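Reminder: ligand-aware prediction takes two inputs, not one.
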Amino acid sequence: MDWKKSVVYQIYPRSFMDSNDDGIGDIRGIIKKLDYLKLLGIDIIWLSPIYKSPDKDNGYDISDYYDISEKFGTLDDFKELLEEAHNRGIKILMDLVVNHTSDMHPWFIESRSSKDNPKRDFYIWRDGFGDKKPTTQYGFFNEPVWQYDEKTDQYYFHNFAVEQPELNWENEEVREEVYKMMNTWLDMGVDGFRMDVINLISKPEATLRVDGGPGAPCENGPRVHEFLQEMNKKTFSNYNTITVGETPGVSVEEAKKYANLDGSELDMVFQFELVGIEDKGPEGKWHTRKIKLSDFKRVTNHWQTGLHGKAWNSLYLSNHDQPRCVSRFGNTSSEFLREKSAKMLATILHFQQGTPYVYQGEELGMTNYTINSLDDCRDYEVFSVYKDLVEDKKIHTEESMLAALNERCRDHARTPMQWNDDVNAGFSKGEPWIEVNPNYKTINAEAQINDENSIFNYYKKLIALRKELPVMVDGNFELLLPDSEEIFAYTRNLDNCKLTIVANYTDKIIKCDGVKPEGEILICNYPNPKNNCEQLQPYEARVFIKK
Ligand code: ISL
Ligand code: CA
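Here is what comes back for the chain with calcium ion:
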């Protein structure tokens, strides 16, 4: 399948479109909006999880891999969505969450019932170290990774919520169950998978040891490539699919194995180096530091040149786990700067080599909302992290934590899609499960679709250009002015075609004599741009093409 020319659109179903006014987005809501996505020009939809789930982590805790959550609809609704999407030439990727299940999954209910239950070994159980946990390791949501279970006097392993016990991939029966489930969805017509934390499935010995010591992170464990090659052979290589692995902590060297162009594992992976640049120290991602442009460019360059000709990049600045990219990397201090910086960010991303991902609302320049207290948040992570950093470790005060939440909380991405200026932004007539960003009166799809200068129509152009210009897909990448803290510039070259991308990353008018672009203007986020780079307006992005 031609995923190298494709653009993926991520839907977070509970916040996309509500068809029955219960305040929760659903599958029939997505069907209603397929024409909107067709208009935007995207090729593939990635659906965040829609399976049965107790929703401790918004569906990333699955209790039945074969059925649809009643909140989202029925299996028949899903089949209709598949058909309607396919009729419009749009593919659908399911979210595959198989590092862990819900604690309400029948496998886990059985597994915890006794030490000799046949499903015991489906999960990871260990004795304590004396009366302490096997290790003192903390997981992604700032909670201990070992959870004591009284019934059998042992601990089970979880990197995420307590209600997300991790599957034991060493057990062949587990792997076969997963492959069987994947094939069921592929047989139904699903076009591939986005694979949740797929590089955590093989646990290194140092992660699981029982010595009361610190433990070790479980990224890229010893058998992960073997497992993925097995999965590849037994499932998706027998179909025409697209696969993308979510791989926190992946390096360029590891990514070359996961996303090798030889097709032995996955088509591409999400790296976290870029969105995590500043996430150092005991507070992790919970800080208010801004990323330095030179760092941003260094990491981009590292991945663009590192994978060129060897593996394939996924390009993203936002998803359901990240704050809104225009708030984080752009400028929302005025309507004007929001529009310019949203288009500038899109330009920088879409002209790189890889498959671009557009997260719902990004194409409208949707922004973070204001969090005044924990009551405004819904995400499990907020409450566990608050307990750890504010109450237990006192690394944050209430105020500094609130400031960090306003920068980095995952709920920023999860407020409802802003369709129009009607009640609840046209998302639902019922009370939405999470508050609507009050700026929907000005920022909404309806206002942008018919405005030829809107962010929406700018994204539409970028998406269309990828299909027209082979240099966008296959050209090499060369970074210009690596040390500049004002300008993001690079070139792409293929055969005799050259693109020069130049962007002003500041809110000021600047001079840019260091770049001598060749050819004509291809696209720009300001009207009537000059055919040079001598002066750039705030957040101006100009792309030149020489054929
Ligand atoms: O957002 C994060 C926590 O700070 C990330 O570290 C995130 O947990 C990590 O990228 C894994 O994300 C995926 O698996 C999680 C789920 O909560 C996320 O929504 C999902 O994208 C557990 O299934
Ligand atoms: Ca609904």
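The chain has a mean pLDDT of 97. The longest strand covers residues 487-494. We will return to this case in the review session.
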